[in-house]
Amino acid sequence: MTTTEAPPNMITIMIDNQEVTVPRGTTILEAAKSAGIYIPTLCWDPKLKAYGACRMCVVQPEGRRQFLASCVTPADPVPAPPPAERGTMVSQSVRTNTPEVVDLRKGVLGLLMSEHPHGCLTCDRITHCGPTDICLRNVSVTDRCVVCPQNQRCELQAVVEITGVDESIYDYGYRALPIRDEDPFFDRDYNLCIACVRCVRVCNEVVGADAISMVQRGDRVLPGTPFDLPLSDAASGCIHCGACVDACPVGALTEKDNKWAGLPSHTVTTVCDQCEIGCQLTVEMQGEKVLRVVPDLDGGANGGLACVKGKFQLTDSTRREDRFLVPLIRQNTSANPSSWDVALGFISDALTKNNGEKFALITTGTSSNEDAYLLQKLARQVQGSNNIDNVPRALSPAINEMANAVGIGVSTNEIKDISKSKSILFMGADLNSTHPVAAYQIHKAVNYVDADLISVTSTTYPEISRAATQNLQLNNGTELAFLRGMLKVVFDEDLIDQEFIEKRVENIQSLRESVASIKLDVVSSETGISVDLIQKAARSYASSTPSSIVYAVDPSSDSKGIAAMLTNLALVTGGVGNGSSGVHIFLPQGNSQGIQDIGAAPRDTENDFEAILDGIESGNITSLLWVGDLSTSTSFTPTSLEDRVEQELPDAMITRLKNTLPKLEFLAAVSLAPSIISELADVVLPTTSFMERDGTYTNSERRVQRIRASLQPAGETKPVWEIVKEIATNMGSAEFDYSSASSVFDDIANNVETYKGLSFERLDSEFTGVQWPVPDTDHPGTPTLHNDKFSTASGLARVTSI
Amino acid sequence: MPETFTEIKRTADATWNEWVNNGSPRIFVQTNADSMASGAIEVKEAIQDTLDKQKISADVTVVGSQGMAFAEVVVDIIKPDKPRITYGNVTPENVPGLIVDYIVKDDPRPDLALGTQGEGEIDGIPLLKDHPFWKLQYPIVTRNFGHIEPGNLNHYIAQGGYSMLNRALEMEREDVRKEIESSVLRGRGGALFPAATKWNFMMNAPHPKYLAVNGEEGDAGAFTDKAIAENDPHTLLEGILISAYTMGIDKSFVHIRAEYLVAVERLRRAVHELEEANLVGENILGTDFSTEIEIEATGHAYICGEETALMDSVEGKRGTPRPRPPFPAAYGIFGRPTNINNVKTLSYVPAIFEHGGEWFKSIGVEAATGTMFLSLSGDVKHSGFAEVPLGVSLREVVEDMCGGTKSGTSFKGIQTGGPLGGGADWDSLKDLPLEFDPLNGLGAPVGSGGMMMLGQGTCIVDLTHNLMQFNAAESCGKCFPCRKGTGHIVRTINRVMTGLGKMEDLDEIVYMGDTMRDGSLCGLGQLAPRITTAMLRHFRSEWESHLVDKTCPAGVCGNLDGQEITFS
Questions:
Q1: In this structure, are residues B222 and B264 in contact, taking their beta carbons and an 8 Å threshold?
Q2: Which CATH superfamily is domain A398-586 in?
Q3: Which residue of chain B has the CA closest to A106?
Q4: Are both B53 and B201 inside the same structural domain?
Q5: Residue B238 and residue B164 in contact, taking contact as beta carbons nearer than 8 Å
Q6: Which of A263, A503, B19, B444 could be joined to B424 by an S-S link, Cβ 3.0–4.6 Å?
Q7: Which of B 326-355 lie inside 8 A of A, CB atoms?
Q8: Which pLDDT value is given to residue B566?
Q9: Cβ separation of B511 and A107 shorter than 8 Å?
């Protein structure tokens, strides 16, 4: 296809005599980048609003002695100069590299270098020197680049080199500021700071922590904390996400771990397992050592962001000192180490004895898709049992409730759609500690598009409520009543999307009738929220497009019915199946979604978690294979820096498990480290951490992403799929002939409809992962569900009656 | 609450007449922040004391200052049926004598008198308008200064105030704008952008839209915004209301320096009175026009006078300039269309509207219409503020009006337009008219009207250092060239002042100045090096004698022996 003229929403601009066509509103810098033209920058960050401070990106309009900061200047046509008629617009034509431009850049860099240590920057020997070499020019240690932790990763270094500054024109003075090393994860050395404000901007604009701000003015301006407190102080508001460290172009902010270790030998791109966001991370390795973790700018779910768990604590589970390294077999009260052969034989015998409906399998969200697939295959094919369930599903009725309404119990939209919403209804757990990157998206919506954030909470006080425009703290456990109140307002004030309902929704009449009996003043007295506020919240959500519902499942509270009611709200107002509007449900644990897709879930309620525990109590189920670890997610609060808080299962469920599991004849646990399950198990098989194995995870937005091993398995640990393969082979099955995780995945693609078009090769080449359904290998993936029809049998959504 | 403007006006006139014709002597104490510093409050107490002791019945009123800062404290006495006599240099010590002599003994004390104002003459005392300081003046903005109690709504209305608002409210918005456009009123904040053209961007902008009034007057040697806010706040407020009506403004933010305590207090009082009289708020004077005025005492930062930094400041953020585009008329305060005008610009609006654009044009010259409200300071006999028609010669302003140097030496030059302005030597300036373009071409822009006259006792290097220090301290630190450049120029000049400099330092200053001018984000950074380049251009020999001969011609920089002086 050839076009002679740009479409109306496209504009053209001449950059260095090269014609570039970009959408209207694109900045000159972005246009140049799209055409592969380099313009140096220091304060520009793709994650942030353009700021226009460093003046490195200046360009010159053709034939005029004028300088435009290209990061903030739109590439749009400009009024023609005087001889032309008023109102005539002409395309811009700019030069990025005239002598004047280069001279200006050099002038600014000269000023910058007068405060930034740069002994090696202008030295032609820089490529020959290492940190321990004696400097032939006697440059003091604080002024040398080769001893800077950011050496060769420094943006200033790169810009100086490309611009061609080869002497420092102004007097230099070391600022001799104290190095702030009291924070837990990173050091702040403001002697190196160039005041580009990227750290402050990412903290305020995107993360929403507001922990740092610029202090002082003029050439004393520097980032600082409230009252100059250390960031480890809870009052600073820092959530230690490390976004500032990733944003810093120089060595002012550096990770504490391996600060001086130098450059990585290689990198491994993998996906964080700590929550259901699935942040893509680049793990920088030096041989067998993890140097640092950098969130991947191209990451489909996170786009260059991460939280403290991914950025600084990724290796914590791998490095746990109490990890199981060899199989253990319990004899009387003590668990004794054994060889794999003995342990596998022991398990095979026990499972053969207790097969059929006497066998049950429970897995957790730490299993990869490959693990889950072989597990359910073991249960269904070898053992002939349908007693399969998983912990995330047991903890949250949301999956089922949503599936009843729209066909599939999964978030309908991409996570980044949240940031485009005009109105966001938030409910559930403290998103900032359970799924921080989703919280950033909410902050972005509030900051960038002035979204109305309605935060509905009762027992907890989520951090995100601070940003709420409508912060509604209900009486304990009255969320459901409140949502019914909102529905009542939506129907009473005719805020429903009649056209959408007629075309796409059924069962509306029964909902309308049941809503009619609700009385707002009763709801108000029950929830403790005035009628006005209920109305205001309902009006805001129902009348804004796009809108989002964000629900972080809180395992510790009774959440029955909430997801159903949220889905109702979305359905009657057209807030789902409708472009960027959607419902986002976040479950605990990294691969909670994948294990549902793969089939490590019951086909009906007769075999679910409750039924399995009942079966154990009644003696119908005599053997249980429990795979995975129990902590639902790693939660982190700034006040308890020292302890990694592990949110275990709700107390009631732990008690139930402790009482029930000893009734089993045989309990096998496949686990990373001790838990209440492994303490009760007859056999414990040690497994690899997610950093030691290959596979795929599926995040909450259905994005299937590759996890890649960056470390060798510790001790004798093995990945779960390999353990299952060996058990099954031991038991005489010939169906488990898999050579690698990749071959397991090929089998998944053959059998799971929504994964049909996927393979390891495709996921490796399409680096950001693909969102299912992917019916064939050419299908690009499905970012938004239910756009034309819902996934139910009839294609219509079915609202849930109250 | 009075319903119509006629009723308001009637009440105001009655109050005014009662005050003027009450039969007893009236004593005015010209009070603003400057005269308070010179003891105006003590003088007023002394007057009251004397009156009490002598059992004289007289009315003592605080009025605005007429700008004669050289003669603080200024007190006027009006005896019934006598002209008003203005006395200068009044102190608590000479007050009792003055009161007793004039009011009791009927001796007008010509030794203390500056002149008489109004009808009639008194033997031995000249007319004030014949005083050299007053000869050139043409009061438009300052017409009420010293004649009414500042912020007293009745006084202002009795002098004809708010009748123009009343008239404007009955006209089409576009017609009001056209009237101002015909006057070619240019922005008096220093940028000289035609005010009515700026308003035009706002006429069809969507609601809500805001008006930002820039009174963040941080320039060293500029005090005219303060003068207006202190001495006649209602002129400003009427100008704001007429502009607000014209552009359909929903809310005006008057951003006035927090350090201007008297100005803030008087403005607040004035707005309060307006609210009581329904001249601001919902349905003003019964029309369907509603607008609000908020006095924002914010700042403590010079940069907040930059238009976009001011907007951040009004929003409650750290005041740093925003990149443009988007321009304020599209994306201003809280992201809404915003017009921004200087206090002085808006204060001209009621008078222009009253007498017509053609009248205003007839006052100045073609390229610079109207008057210029000047802040006169430095080495002159008559310092203070004065309003003169544009186009008068600088020689008249400096030699006649200001009365020559206080030190008795000859003039060396003038520093104009504050720290972001410039300056030139007296020889190049003396034959020029007070106009925008010729002065700009010389590197001595009029700016917001600040003029600091320099005698031979001023060292240019020291002065430049001082003003650049101001620029360095007030740079917000956002864009790199300004953040580092201002500080560097200060350090380089410091070397020159202390005898450590080399001739190459001067080239370095010029190069740094070019980087800042071309590269900086906002006006502060672009204009900050201007003072240095102007002073280098006009006084190069003085710089060179510091560098080569190691002497300071003015004898200010005593320490040219290479000992670095540390400045805090």
A1: no
A2: Dimethylsulfoxide Reductase, domain 2 (3.40.228.10)
A3: B515
A4: no
A5: yes
A6: B444
A7: 335
A8: 55
A9: yes
